[in-house]
Amino acid sequence: MKQYIGIDFHRQTSYITRMDKEGNILEQLKVKNRPEELGVFLFKHVEDSKIAIEATGNWYYFYELIEEMKPDVLLAHPLKTRAIASARIKTDKIDSATIAHLLRTDLLPAAYIPPREVRDVKEILRYRASLVSLRVALKNKVRAILSKNGITLNVRFQ
């Protein structure tokens, strides 16, 4: 039996909707994002399921949790998933059901999931960029404090 699982993923918990191919909701539940809860649920249902998760900042954790199971996973593109963004009533339960429904009807706009090596390199580059940005901000603050006290530096910070 083909199943469609929509997951509204948050930092500590996720809301999951499991749907059959006719669109009947088989199960809706809230789980903690720990291997003993989320991992066990997915392990039970990954065999004949298509899974979709919202592309939030912490989707890496979810994907790495189930990556070895070789699941059929799509990452829902947040900007293109207008059905969720434009809903009048927004709850995690409704969002997960909408994700499952869009997945079932093949209308889910998917984002690219890069291989682990690419994800790791991107993570390092993001961290470096944030450190460079922090360095610039600190230099600007020092210059502002000096300027406020009438001190002008004629040298460049290195």
What report would you give on this structure?
The chain has five helices and six strands; from the N terminus they run E-E-E-H-E-H-E-H-H-E-H. It has helices at residues 35-45, 59-66, 82-85, 92-104, 116-148; strands at residues 3-9, 13-20, 25-32, 49-54, 72-76, 110-111. It folds into two domains: 3-111, YqgF/RNase H-like domain (Nucleotidyltransferase, domain 5, 2-Layer Sandwich), CATH 3.30.420.140; 114-158, no CATH class. By secondary structure, it is an alpha/beta fold. The chain has a six-stranded mixed β-sheet with strand order 3-2-1-4-5-6.
Number of strands: 6
The structural class is alpha/beta
The rounded distance between the terminal residues' Cα atoms is 63 Å
Kindly state the percentage of residues in helix.
40-55%
> Any low-confidence stretches, pLDDT <50, length ≥5?
none
The total tally of domains equals: 2
Q: Return Rg in Å.
A: 22 Å
Record keyword descriptors for this entry.
alpha/beta, Transpos_IS110, Nucleotidyltransferase, domain 5, 158 residues
How is this structure best summarized?
With 158 residues, the chain is an alpha/beta fold. The chain has helices at residues 35-45, 59-66, 82-85, 92-104, 116-148, and strands at 3-9, 13-20, 25-32, 49-54, 72-76, 110-111.
